[in-house]
Design a protein that fits this description.
With 156 residues, this protein is mostly helical. The chain has one domain (33-151). It is 66% helix and 0% strand. It has 5 helices and no strands. The longest helix is centred in the first third of the chain and has 27 residues, at 33-59. This is DUF6113 family protein. Keywords: Membrane, Transmembrane, Transmembrane helix. Pfam families: DUF6113. InterPro entries: DUF6113 (IPR046095).
């Protein structure tokens, strides 16, 4: 039995045929409308938490700083958990950081909302570190897959 050949003389195997209709391509949606609203709310909430942190951390220095960083971490981690995406932690951090930049810009009177003190730098750098940690941490599904593969390796 001879097989069909291509131009180079190699035998070709025809693809299997199916009578089923070809599936229509599914249009890819970036995000649902509810998730987009959640992203917008998290960004605005990040700006609010940033402003509150600017006001609280210098008032009660050690405790206010811990409270401001704890609130920022709760928002970043909560956004990550709520949306189950890295963008859920990134957008509140962007809102938080934009508010800190606005608070650090000089006003026409020459005043600043944020002063250049030790606590302010810890608040700024610590909040950025917390945002990066929350945005880059692995998802629960990824951790579960790693755990299951480790258990399977132990059993064999």
């Amino acid at each position: 039995m001879s097989r069909p050949q291509d131009r180079t003389g190699r035998a070709t195997v025809p693809a299997p045929r199916s009578s089923a209709p070809r599936p229509e391509p599914v249009p890819e949606r970036i995000a649902s409308p509810g998730r987009i609203v959640a992203y917008l709310l998290l960004t605005v909430l990040g700006a609010v938490v940033g402003l509150a942190g600017c006001l609280v951390q210098p008032m009660w220095f050690p405790g206010g700083l811990a409270l401001a960083l704890g609130g920022a971490f709760a928002l970043f981690y909560g956004g990550r958990t709520l949306t189950r995406t890295k963008l859920g932690a990134t957008l509140p951090a962007v809102g938080w950081f934009v508010m800190l930049l606005a608070a650090n810009s000089p006003r026409p009177e020459g005043d600043f909302l944020i002063t250049g003190s030790f606590g302010t730098y810890v608040f700024l750098l610590g909040g950025l570190a917390l945002a990066v940690i929350c945005a880059t941490m692995p998802s629960a599904e990824a951790l579960r897959a790693v755990r299951e593969s480790a258990q399977q390796r132990q059993q064999t």
